[in-house]
Amino acid sequence: MFELLATDPSSQARRGRLTLPHGVVETPIFMPVGTRGTVKSVSPLELEALEAQIILGNTYHLYLRPGMPLLEQFGGLHRFMAWDRPILTDSGGFQVFSLAKLRQITPEGVHFRSHIDGSKLFFSPESVLETQGIIGSDIAMLLDECPPWPCEREYAEKSLALTQRWAERSRRWIAEQGRAGQHYFPIVQGSVFPDLREKAARDLVDLDFDGYAIGGLSVGEPEVEMYRAVEAAVPHLPAAKPRYAMGVGQPDQLLELVSRGVDMFDCVLPTRVARNGAAYTDDGLMNLRNARYEKDERPISADTHPLCAPFSRAYLRHLIKNDEILGLRIVTLHNLHFYLGLMKRARCAIQGGDFARFRDDFTRRYRQGVIE
Hints:
This protein is of the alpha/beta class.
């Protein structure tokens, strides 16, 4: 499934390749978020034009709408959304804990009410894997509990013990009923406690999964704590399997985590900030609502995607100020292109043996945030 192609001599950055049922994924990689079976405002053909290699869907939202009977009728999410490249699905655990009403966590699983209509629902370690089998994702995530931040150590310990028991149950289910070709990743938790992160990583590796995710990141903790959590887990994860940092983050954070040995990322930021009229560039975040762009004839950036290049900053500002859908679509395409391009540049830098210099140069320029 995973081939390690190169390592950076002055950091832990890795260049790899994932071979999945629906295609090959070059790592490090950013996965656009398609929570409900769509990357907001972007078509699958546009995603292909952006060279997106894999996207993310969410089990919780897809379970509620459109529902498993319809996805089963279509033979899975790929055909339903007309996307023939790889898909990773989150288990929905984070959404249960952040969105669901009146949730009750038990050793058996989680009882909760839908955030849409209040109906009673239940997720177990086994049921979320069965659901992801119907969705037909290339990579399925195991059910875990994501502890809040901040949380007391006692809560983090109990939460981690529950996540581990669920992982053991998932391992048994996979052995007996796992979908052929589908790959399974557990999630390393442990909040901001390094020894718990290490324990989680070691215990999950003992169960021997296809890859490993690090969760509970970017949930409000200081940036330095996020890095410490990753640093505590990564050394105990196998080098021959992919590592995925969930829900992270800003462009400079991605490069910092690449330098710490992480291979896969997802985040809603590229599409979310685009809907607020902001564009990512090497020189920081550009707020296209600003009056300074009212007559600016230049494109967002010199290296924007050809789909975005014909449009001036002045025109985009006009669209955004008037709430025209085209404006947010163009900026969304640009932001996804930026994130995907950043990972492509990282892969080239690792292959060339100078990733650390690339990271430092990019971070210095990005954090200065001097946009003309």
